[in-house]
Specification:
Chain lengths: 100, 190
């Protein structure tokens, strides 16, 4: 029988993949996509423990997470467009004005 | 669907989990952003399937509608918009610190696995019926989620709507054409 532990293991794998993606990719769109992987990992955990505890709060929290993810995607993609206008590139290594 | 989730839950979980991980690897390893977006779509759909296996049917529908239908289309729009200018897939697409980053991610995953697996041996024993019942009546998952969302979590729900409004305003402001933000040499003159 598949328990919450299986879901936690899958969610950890997905989360680690997302973190690796955020650190490894140079394209800003790809960094945002890796962030979505992290959100999905969190949602998997919430759903698995909601089922395990028989408590709907986990599912409601997952709805909130999806909402925030949508807001984050809109802001992030707006930032990509702004960066594209400003520097004509979306490679993060080129956006280094703040580097000391 | 009930038949499938009741009798083949284990095999379905392993198939969906394998495809989820494969999609995630595709997202971070493929070069072409469009391929990455399609890989992300596969991940979203498989995660929706996993939600169904955990009796979260409404969340599965929301996952497909909002993630696969909304956010992913937004990503594809931006990819197309940016692709016109310059985004050669064949350029170096990984950062210089990639090996160290992969090591750090694996380490982080190991630590989190230890901590979370300890947590997953904690209390158990909620009835699945609790995910589908409103005040004792079995009405289905959507009604139950709506009931909890609009009673217990009403205030957070309203706060989240304000967050969405702020995000919308922010996205509009970022996307606006501002002369002070034009690139050097004014490449974007209309």
């Amino acid at each position: 029988m598949i328990g919450a532990a299986h879901y936690v293991a899958l969610s950890v794998i997905l989360f680690a993949l997302g973190v690796i993606g955020v650190m490894v990719r140079r394209n800003m769109i790809m960094v945002l996509m890796a962030l979505e992987l992290i959100f999905n990992a969190a949602n998997l955990n919430l759903i698995a423990f909601s089922d395990r505890l028989g408590d709907l709060s986990g599912q409601v929290l997952a709805i909130f997470v999806i909402t925030i993810a949508a807001a984050e995607a809109a802001i992030g993609l707006g930032l990509i467009i702004a960066l594209m206008r400003l520097k004509d590139t979306i490679t993060l290594d080129d956006a280094d004005e703040m580097r000391g | 669907m009930d038949f499938l989730t009741a009798h083949f839950a284990t095999i379905l979980f392993y198939i969906l989990a394998a495809l989820t991980v494969a999609g995630g690897v595709g997202v971070i390893a493929l070069k072409n952003p469009v391929h990455c977006a399609l890989s992300l779509l596969a991940t979203f759909l498989m995660v929706a399937g996993l939600f169904v296996l955990r009796h979260a049917e409404f969340l599965a529908a929301v996952q497909v509608l909002v993630y696969a239908g909304g956010i992913l289309v937004l990503f594809l729009f931006v990819i197309m918009l940016v692709n016109i200018k310059r985004m050669q897939p064949e350029q170096v697409f990984l950062s210089r610190l990639a090996p160290a980053a992969v090591m750090a991610g694996v380490l982080l995953g190991g630590i989190m696995a230890c901590l979370l697996l300890i947590g997953s041996f904690g209390p158990t024993g909620g009835a699945t019926a609790a995910l589908q019942s409103v005040q004792g009546q079995n009405l289905g998952n959507t009604e139950a989620v709506g009931w909890v969302l609009y009673t217990k979590y009403l205030v957070p729900f309203e706060v989240v709507s304000v967050v969405l409004l702020v995000a919308m305003i922010g996205a509009i402001i970022f996307g606006r054409r501002d002369p002070a933000l034009e690139g050097r040499g004014g490449r974007m003159e209309r």
